[in-house]
Amino acid sequence: MLLAIIRIAPLAGPAGVDPQAVHDLVWRHRAAADRLELLHVRGNATGLHLAGFLLAPSAAAAYDSLRRLVERSLTAAPELRLWRVVYPYTRAGPADRS
Fold first, then answer.
1. What is the pTM (predicted TM-score) of this model?
2. Could you report the per-residue pLDDT of 59-74, keeping only the tens digit for each?
């Protein structure tokens, strides 16, 4: 099991969203293929950090799986339509996604 962390934030305006509501949204949209075992969401004034433990063969695969799940969840929620994944992390720290 590997840890992947994703930061999401609104494109503009304050980040006034309940972390528990985002947790529940992502949890509802998970599929067996995502292999998400545990999810924790924490917020601050500029956005949310989502930490997921996933069954994946590598840190990059865990991050990609969580990113797809989060993007799918954000697309499904009208109130989060202006939110995006803004900073990728892996278990080792910020990922080089270039």
1. 0.84
2. 999 999 999 999 999 9
d(CA 9, CA 35): 24
6 near 66, Cβ under 8 Å? yes
The pLDDT value given to residue 46: 82
Under 8 Å between Cβ of 22 and 48: yes
Residue 96 is assigned to a structural domain of this protein: no
User: Is residue 50, in this structure, part of any structural domain at all?
Assistant: yes
Domain of 32?
2-91
Question: Is the dihedral angle over the CA atoms 65, 23, 29, 7 positive or is it negative?
Answer: negative
How far apart CA 56 and CA 53 sit, in angstroms, is 9
Do residues 39 and 26 make contact, with C-beta atoms less than 8 angstroms apart?
yes
Report the CATH number at residue 49: 3.30.70.260
Distance between CA atoms of 85 and 80, rounded to whole angstroms? 11
Q: Which residues of 37-61 are buried (b: 16+ CB within 10 A; e: fewer)?
A: eebebebeeebbbbebbbebeebbe
